[in-house]
Amino acid sequence: MVFFAYVIAYIDRSNVAVAKLTMAPAFGWANDTYSVGAAMFFIGYFLLEIPGAIIVERWSARLWISRIMISWGIIAALQAAVQTPTQFYVGRFFLGLAEAGFFPGVIVYLAHWFPRRDRARAMALFIMAAPVAQIVSPRLSYPLLRMGTTEVIGGETVVHAAFMGLAGWQWVFIVWGIPAVLFGIAILWLMTDRPADARWLSSEEKAALLEEIKRDRLEDGSLATSHSLAGFRDPRVWLLAGANFSIVCGHYGVEMFLPSILERWYGLSLGQITWLVMLPFVAMLLGQFFTSVSSDRTGERWWHTATPMYVGALALFATPFTEGSLPLTLLGFALGLAGIRSYLAPFFTLPRLFLGGSAAAGSIGLINAIGNLGGFVGPIAVGHVEVATGSFRGGLWFLAATAATAATFIVVARQTHLRGLRARATLGLSEGSPTC
Questions:
Q1: Does residue 25 contact residue 169 with C-beta atoms inside 8 Å?
Q2: For the whole model, what pTM was predicted?
Q3: Residues 51, 174: contact at Cβ < 8 Å?
Q4: Range 136-151 average pLDDT
Q5: Fewer beta carbons below 10 Å: N end or C end of the chain?
């Protein structure tokens, strides 16, 4: 259920990358104008991340996520009305504000249902909705995107009529906004907040599941930290937030400009682009699945987070050198996106290694809020560098550097965590003790 909700969410936040191919030329917008609008989503998103995670922990995931989906669906559809850069910026800001709290809320929600040994795979099955959305969205949006455009097919100019006076990019926003509203209404009947409320579990199954989750929290001492802001004093939380910020710079910088890069480097048609952009996201999907399975099987989290980041950084650094060879370019972006997104499932298990309850929820909200500010910085950096230099190369090297920085933050956080464990073992304290 949350998988399909995230598919819809991700399409509504990122279909602007495909819509831009006809939207920006229609208004004469340069890449820096588009990049600011694409990035404004993350400013609005930042504002409600922490409250959203805490609301799910203390109140109701069902009601909160339903509210989120209905409001973001309406605002996503209303983006079809924009005519000026300012309107575009405002629309993206309010779309982010509407969707804020969804992702960290689901991360907290899954922790209510899955014990530690299964949590990375459960998160991966949720997180894999993002590449699935990126795989299906371009091709499903392509027939809509052609409306009101002119293209050359087989040497002949073909004019595609607009529908109801609206251009294709407008219909992309409208059509993809509707499922969010409908699914948000359905969530009210489909979602169960906690195992204790599940009518489809027996009393014995509820007791067994809740006991295992409680035992996990007792073993790592996370029950001792319950205040919503308790984790904000922990340096590991801020290191994880810095890592998430840096890696999200890389991810959204690539994602928002991948169609434009392929169009610039190889002069591809709209139809060709909507096929080819699927391939890196297939690699991302596979990377997320295998990383999460390996992390759960071994029980190791830190290196399963940092290693893919380093791989992605190296691939993005090398990709500009592949210009002129489409297969190598696609391979570079495939390895880059797979690397900089495979970290997600093990990464979001890390806060609950040392925090629990509302402290973990608040910290997950903080980590995701600061992280998503990277979604503001990454696209703007790529867009402005492209306008200044006439090339995407400098922007891609910047994104590679941010991915490498993120991996280094994880390594430092791991060392901090291990030092803390050794110190507490020496003192005979458990993680989360009030004296920590």
A1: no
A2: 0.73
A3: no
A4: 78
A5: N
